[in-house]
Prior knowledge:
Elements: E1 3-7, H1 13-22, E2 26-30, H2 34-42, E3 46-47, H3 51-54, E4 60-63, H4 68-77, E5 91-94, H5 100-112, E6 116-119, E7 122-123, H6 125-131, E8 134-139, H7 142-152, E9 156-163, H8 167-195, H9 200-208, H10 215-219, H11 242-259, H12 264-281, H13 290-295
Parallel strand pairs: 1-2, 1-4, 2-3, 4-5, 5-6, 8-9
Antiparallel strand pairs: 7-8
Helix pairs in contact: 1-2, 1-6, 4-5, 8-11, 8-12, 11-12
Bound molecules: nicotinamide-adenine-dinucleotide (NAD).
Amino acid sequence: MATIAFIGLGNMGGPMAANLAQAGHNVNAFDLSGAALNQAVEAGCNAADSAQHAVRGADFVISMLPAGKHVEALFVSGEQPLFDLIDSSALVIDSSTIDADTARRVAAAGAEKGIGFIDAPVSGGVGGAKAGTLTFIVGGEAAQFERAQPILACMGKNIFHAGETGAGQIAKVCNNMLLGILMAGTCEALSMGMKNGLDPKVLSDIMKQSSGNNWALQVYNPVPGVMDGVPASRDYEGGFMVDLMFKDLGLAMEVSQQSASATPMGSAARALFNLHKSNGNGGLDFSSLIRLYQSAE
Ligand code: NAD
């Protein structure tokens, strides 16, 4: 069994660390939030009092942080950067969704110290993190991918090698741009149906068996009361925050600009989530976008 440092125990990182501990690994966990750290300890992790302490003697270091600036500061540019402390035999796995350029920069800084780094963002949401069924989308060398696989398999079901360093983040951002578009489209269709007197549960069942079927309708319905156990059924608490979806759509727009790719739908989705965020909803789950449609009625 491996010794694993796990940094960032939020909505996603908490259950991911718990699954590693349940698989028998020795997980030294750290989060800036004491409440998140306590939950990880209840789930079988050891509490570290800093990220620097967590990485001592680790075979693997996993980070699950909000954005690129947090990842770069932690490993490279902050006070006591972890690349000064991590053993060169360890492999760093960053599962945060960040821009590919930062992932490549951090990987290069690790390589200068002989430390391996892969980008391994995930898809599958908090439900997938809890159930251990996440999809991992890895960018890095083939040997690093092979080495990470048994660890990722404790947290996920589908593990893909997208290509070289940064490729995992590019694939992830393509997926999340599509997710933002399909969630907006699902909110739009359900709102129009409800405005015309349809029961949202009946309409959802119809569309799930029709050509409009999609992931939001299947496992993440945005209308309260249609589906149990989703953020819509608990006032949009937990889940995947509007702030994070807005960040991911911004990353998609950067990739679009750098590669001169046409992304009019991604751009429209970003504008919708921007409006919703600027109405004070950044901390809610992203399926709360349906409120934007309902407030427009
Ligand atoms: P979150 O805000 O719930 O968790 C982030 C955690 O990182 C927080 O607990 C915070 O205290 C901690 N943190 C921040 N800086 C830190 C530091 N320097 N040291 C230690 N801890 C620190 O976010 P989340 O929903 O868990 O998402 C994490 C990442 O995963 C994001 O990049 C997000 O885009 C991505 N993601 C989220 C989902 C989802 O459904 N929530 C799905 C796929 C990918």
